[in-house]
Amino acid sequence: MSRIVITEFMDERAVAQLAARHDVLYDPTLVDNRPRMATEAATADAIIVRNRTQVRAELLAALARCTVVGRLGVGLDNIDVAACEARGIKVIPATGANALSVAEYVIASAMLLLRGAYRATPEVIAGQWPRNALSNGREIGGKTLGLVGFGSIGQLTARLARGLGMTVIAFDSMLDAHNPVFAQIGVRCVGIDTLTESADVISLHVPLVDATRNLFDAQRIGVMKPGAVLINSARGGVVDEAAVAAALHSGHLGGAALDVFDTEPVPAGSVFSGCPNLLLTPHIAGVSAESNERVSFLIATMVLEALG
Questions:
Q1: Cα radius of gyration rounded to whole Å, the chain
Q2: What's residue 67's pLDDT?
Q3: Which residues are known catalytic residues?
Q4: For 245, how many CA atoms within 13 A lie in the half-sphere containing its CB?
Q5: Residue 288 vs residues 98, 158, 240, 295: alpha-carbon distances, Å
Q6: Residue 80: its pLDDT value, please?
Q7: Three-class SS of residue 11?
């Protein structure tokens, strides 16, 4: 029997599936107690984490007998994958399991920001009737969605968008323009400059690496279409937050939805204070009741297989 340590929240039925075969410590608050997490890690054969647990030098030093890291999600920027591989530790992400949750987040955010009417509830309750002020909202049908990154999440987002009548263009530095996936989904592959200048809505689906850090900085945001919407559900650091705030204040950006940030939680008094047409969420684009179930059971199954 192996020992499995789970440091963040996981569907409890999936935890039970693990516990039926192995010794399991499940404590969703463990991530906030680093000394105890290091102590528990010392006897772990497998560790299961989300995005807040940093599987890097300090924790890796404590994982003396660990052979598996299960990631309840797809981003791996909180895990030193190379160091894990050097130690013979297998890293298992939940590839594809939360794609629908993220794709729906993108489409819902785009619709909310384009239409602009959904913030009227307090005024209507107060007896006001801002009908004229809210009559210039934009429909999503007929607009162009630009996807920066065209992996599984980008591809599913494209399918949903096309179902709503959007034209979809995409850029992915890892895919050749002749890759059949573009034609299969009905998406035109373009360069990032063309995408930036052409799209009414831009959604980011790339990892945070040196090449993507501040990919959407003041200069790139400046060449977006006036009134365009920017959505980042990928990783904090892919956009320059100060540049987004400035573009919202100036009115150049018609709206922005950010689910990920340079610093999480966002510190008080951030650059976003007072920004118009802004939707901020606490890194939950990929988390829904259904996706949590899919992610949890996928990782439980794969960790069990890896442990043998």
A1: 21
A2: 98
A3: 235, 264, 283
A4: 12
A5: 8, 20, 27, 10
A6: 97
A7: coil
91-117: string of b/e by CB count within 10 Å (b at 16+)?
bbbbeebbbbbbbbbbbebbbbbbebe
Cβ-based neighbour number of residue 268 at 10 Å: 6
Confidence of residue 75 (pLDDT cuts 50, 70, 90): confident
pLDDT value for 119: 87
Within 126-233, residue ranges assigned H as helices are: 152-163, 180-185, 192-198, 218-222
The ranges assigned to domains in the chain are: 3-97+289-307, 99-280
Average pLDDT of the residues in 19-41: 97
Using CA atoms of 190, 191, 193, 195 in order, give the dihedral in degrees to the nearest 10: 30
* CA 156 – CA 160 distance, rounded (Å): 6
Average pLDDT over residues 165-169: 98
Fold of the domain spanning 3-97+289-307: Rossmann fold (3.40.50)
Fold exhibited by the domain 99-280? Rossmann fold (3.40.50)
Q: What is the mean pLDDT of residues 260-282?
A: 95
Please give the sequence-ordered ranges of beta strands (E in DSSP) within the chain, or none if there are none. 3-6, 23-26, 46-49, 68-71, 90-93, 144-148, 167-171, 188-189, 201-204, 228-232, 253-258, 278-280
Length of the chain: 308
Beta-strand relationship, 90-93 and 167-171: unpaired
Average pLDDT, the chain: 97
Q: In 3-state terms, what secondary structure has residue 157?
A: helix
Q: For residues 71 and 94, is the Cβ–Cβ distance under 8 A? A: yes
Q: How many CA atoms lie within 13 A of 199 on its CB side?
A: 30
pLDDT of residue 72: 97
The predicted-structure confidence for 197-234, as pLDDT tens digits, reads as follows: 999 999 999 999 999 999 999 999 999 999 999 999 99
Measure the CA–CA gap between 161 and 163, rounded to whole angstroms.
5
Q: What is the DSSP letter of 66?
A: -
